[in-house]
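re the bet — no i am not wrong, look at it urself. input seq straight from the record:
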Amino acid sequence: MSDVGLLVRLEAKPEKADDVATFLAGALDLVRDESGTVTWFAIRIGPTTFAIFDTFRNESDRQAHLAGQVAAALMENAPALLAAEPVIEQVDVLAQL
């Protein structure tokens, strides 16, 4: 059961949209190594709009993820890939299947 999550919205620079898609797909292996991440989705909403949705069992697992390798790599590459800062929202999971 997951109690908490993250919704991260990303807006790529138009010429970097494919690079953002590649970055997100490549991040999956790093996330698999995180024992506290229950689910992780990287999605493309539009030509340059992306999001990450992930869930965690508890707040400490969510904070560990925010301090982890994927977050660090995203913030390191954000200036080159993104048109704006990532919007990171901490969410509560109300229901799940």
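see?? The chain is about 40% helix and 30% strand. told u. also The chain has one domain: 4-90. so pay up
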